[in-house]
């Protein structure tokens, strides 16, 4: 009984192809994809807001913090990017606000100044002092009731901003709605990844079959076997 090397090679090629496709299929439908999610932080103390539109990303003028390899309670892996949005301040500069606080009336401003004399010279002390001077010029009705929102900003790459954004990132937690939204993105992310990987899988299969055909063609040439046959006509 003669051995048909060419038929054996074809079967091996088919077996490798089946294993390749089945293996990738099992992996594709069982692996946990990473969800890339962006959140915007508009002001100090504000809750990071999820940006659902895939086109929404951090702008060049935003300060950013990256949180890698995070997980929801259900085990969905995600990477979060916090985008800290700048504001235009009174002097016309566009800065990242790093703290903000409400004061009601001139009395509260005065109380803060008295209680924080040790902070004299700091940006916050200067801002409160300036607001107090403006408040004293208001009419009597506004002096007691007017709300003052005082904010301080710094350049995107300053130490102050880096310290502030890191602090926000360290205490960042997903809301229940955000967790549910990210958990719901698993299958759509898997399908997107499958679409990206599918061409590579087909290219590898095509290479395998082309390589197998080329080897068979070369071997047939050395052995004097006609193309499309597994043996010489006189060997039958």
Structure description:
This protein has 236 residues and is an alpha+beta fold. It has three domains: 5-30 and 190-235; 34-86 and 159-182, no CATH class; 88-155, no CATH class. 47% of the residues lie in helices and 20% in strands. It is built from seven helices and seven strands. It has helices at 5-28, 105-115, 123-135, 140-145, 159-170, 176-183, 186-223, and strands spanning 35-41, 49-51, 63-71, 77-84, 87-88, 94-104, 147-154. The strands form two sheets. It has a four-stranded mixed β-sheet, covered by helices on one side. It has a three-stranded antiparallel β-sheet with strand order 5-6-7. Helix 1 (5-28) runs antiparallel to helix 7. The longest helix has 38 residues, at 186-223. The radius of gyration is 33 Å and the shape is rod-shaped. The chain crosses the membrane at residues 12-30, 197-219. Keywords: Membrane, Transmembrane, Transmembrane helix.
Average pLDDT metric: 85
Percentage of residues in DSSP E strands: 15-25%
- How far apart are the first and last residues' alpha carbons, in Å? 12 Å
Helix and strand content put the structural class at alpha+beta
Tell me the number of structural domains. Answer: 3
Radius of gyration in whole Å, from Cα?
Answer: 33 Å
Q: How many distinct helices?
A: 7
Query: Which range best describes the helical content: under 10%, 10-25%, 25-40%, 40-55%, 55-70% or over 70%?
Result: 40-55%
Number of strands: 7
- What is the makeup of the main sheet? 4 strands, mixed
What is the approximate shape?
A: rod-shaped
Strand order of the largest sheet: 2-1-4-3
- Low-confidence segments, given as residue ranges, are none
N-to-C SSE series? HEEEEEEHHHEHHH
